[in-house]
Amino acid sequence: MAWADRLRGEKPLIGVVHLPPLPGSPRYGGDMGEVLERALSDAEAYYSAGITWIILENYGDRPYQVRAGPATVAGMAVAVREVRRALPDAVLGVNMLRNSGPEALAVAHAAGAQFVRVNALAEVMEAPEGLLEPVGREVAMLRRLLGAQELGVFADVKVKHASPLGSRSLEEVARDAVARGGADAVIVSGPRTGEPPSPEEVSRAYSCGAPVLIGSGVTVSNLRTFWKLADGFIVGTYLKKDGVTTNPVDPVRVKRLVEEYVKLKGE
User: Fold this and answer.
1) Cβ of 71: how many Cβ atoms within 10 Å?
2) pTM across the whole model
3) Cα distance between residue 116 and residue 14, in whole Å
4) What domain count does the chain have?
5) φ, ψ at 157 (rounded to 5°)
6) Apex CA 90: angle with CA 85 and CA 93, to 5°?
7) Contact 129/66 with Cβ under 8 angstroms?
């Protein structure tokens, strides 16, 4: 099944596992076992509550490299593989900050994930880490080299925590991400982690002709607002204890969101 059909058919909730600092990060604590314990705990909390799509992200690695180094890639691969072993039926994704799309694709292929999120696939963005330059060609070449055409590529458009250097509209960037960058879906997020995009921005992204996902700021209070506008929802901060991104997953918040999701899906 093509990713467009799958996303539009399932309209998934995708829970984010914000990993603690990995090897290669200035904040890494030296114990990979602790990283894996947290990854498994958060992933299992999502899965047991009904969120079966899960994406792992090296959120704790701040300040990020524009492209992740070998130690970080190795750490991410181990974390994704451990989650895959624990949850063999989960749909797993990989996001490697700040713009390590090819590295994320390699990890996904080696560790058994099904999709990646890429922050700047077909546009140049100015970010705190420096310039995020397009990696669409590298991702496409690596996907071909690995024989991994089935791996989904979900591309941010005008990604959060960054500003575009060009003057192309959101519609143009979304179309280019798909037609010229090879994205299977595009992601629209708010300006910062935990902040939602405007409904208008989500609607405008549909000019690309591919599925549109919301990449930040979804809560139990606004899920209904975005329900008919998007083909999926990447949710992290709201589902953490006290709504703090770096805290563990809160089963009570997950339960609330899943209940609202199931209710909307049944209407």
Assistant:
1) 13
2) 0.97
3) 12
4) 1
5) -120, 125
6) 95
7) yes
**Cα separation of 64 and 60, whole Å?**
9
| Residue 13, φ and ψ in degrees, nearest 5 | -90, 130
Report the amino acid identity of residue 10.
E
Q: Which two tokens stand for residue 240?
A: 């953490």
> What's the CATH code of the domain at 43?
3.20.20.70
The identity of residue 32, as a single letter, is M
Chain segment 89-118, per-residue pLDDT in tens: 999 999 999 999 999 999 999 999 999 999
Q: Which residues contact 178 (CB under 8 A, 6 or more apart)?
A: 155, 186, 208, 209, 210
Contact 100, 115 (CB under 8 A): no
Is 60 exceeded by the pLDDT of residue 212? yes
d(CA 130, CA 135): 15
Q: What is the pLDDT of residues 1-38, one digit of tens each?
A: 599 999 999 999 999 999 999 999 999 999 999 999 99
Supply the range of the domain harboring residue 244: 3-266
